[in-house]
Amino acid sequence: MPLRALYVDFNSYFASVEQQLRPELRGKPVAVLPVIADTTCCIAASYEAKKLGIKTGTLVREARRLCPGLQLVEARPATYVEYHHRLVAAVESCVHVERVLSIDEMYCELLGREQQREQALSLACEIKSAIANQVGAELRCSIGIAPNVFLAKTATELQKPDGLTVIEEEDLPGCLFGLKLRDLCGVGPNMEKHLYALNIRSVERLCRSSKAVLRRAWGGIGGERMYDRLRGEWVPDPLTERSSVGHSHVLPPAQRSHRAARSVLHRLLQKAAMRLRSYSMIAGALHVQVRRLDRSSWEKRIRLDPTHDTLQLLDVLNILWADYPAEGDAAPLKVGITLADLYEQSDQSRSLFDNIEARGRLNAAIDRLNLRYGKNTVYFGGAHQALGAAPMRIAFNHIPDPVVEGD
Fold this sequence. Notes:
The structure is a single chain. With 407 residues, this protein is α+β, with helices and mostly antiparallel strands. The chain contains 14 helices and twelve strands. The chain has helices at 13-21, 47-50, 60-66, 77-92, 117-134, 149-156, 189-197, 203-208, 211-218, 221-230, 258-278, 310-321, 356-373, 402-405; strands at residues 5-10, 30-33, 44-45, 71-74, 99-102, 105-109, 141-146, 164-166, 244-250, 281-292, 297-307, 332-344. The strands form three sheets. The protein has a five-stranded mixed beta sheet with strand order 5-6-1-7-8. It has a four-stranded antiparallel beta sheet with strand order 9-12-10-11, with helices on one face. The longest helix has 21 residues, at 258-278. The chain is globular.
């Protein structure tokens, strides 16, 4: 069974970029935050911080308790995107990048002699050297090499940071037995519950289960794919389509009010609508969510005639927001907007009442002005109080385009 996949996983990526750019942070515990506030949580931590128990999701006040000398850094998404593209170019200078999986993960398909163990190891070392020389020595990565992408990704988890691990056919399945179920890509909290219900409580038990049992656990062909992947078979990922476009923002203390939260939601929706148009798509549903300081949440979802018109979407948002509890309840902490049920713009039906062409020209003009002269050159008034809020963010499976989504 040839080694067909080489997977690159950058270690503590956001924190490593900060340590590369700021030498005074090197060798120190660093936490990257969405905003500098004790009420938020860490979105990334350096390995020095991880050794002290600080990880993604750790509350800042808890992180400070674990490490009084912790260096807190506000995230710079545009910088991380810039470094992402530089890193892709560095890897590409050694071997073709077949697919970018996230801001800090990518894989390459090995061909010909590259599939031999020694050649693959030599290529991995070449990649690490290219990253250090072309981008920076603080940008370390773990590289996994295996017969398929799933196992190559799993191999990156076996040695961090700066690891290099090869999984060959003769290593399977024993090399996986030390992992927890949740360490495997495709096994989240809900799937773990399904597996437990079938008395599968370890990776060893999972590997020894039949294809029929895994099909039952995954509810279909996903279980068959997992069975084959665990055995090193090359299983192409099914094609995926964009299902939603959204933005969220943790509110700094000064914006934790009913009025300010509404303004931030307006800004988030205007950004999401512009993104939607850049994809030539329309949305058939709008979802609004608010998480509050007392850990309660409020959310509303409504279906609508598919559109990407900002004014129409803002009208719907105002209708939903009218149901939000008045001032006096727990203050809002985080707000989010999601446009869902996406369709190609060409599927949009002509309305008997709305002037789609006129609205389309208005949206296009606003987009052109904002792209040319900077965001907030033209905007709808509901976002006026939040023009400096909700900067560009990086989701796990979405690498933002600074031209469209920059601040």
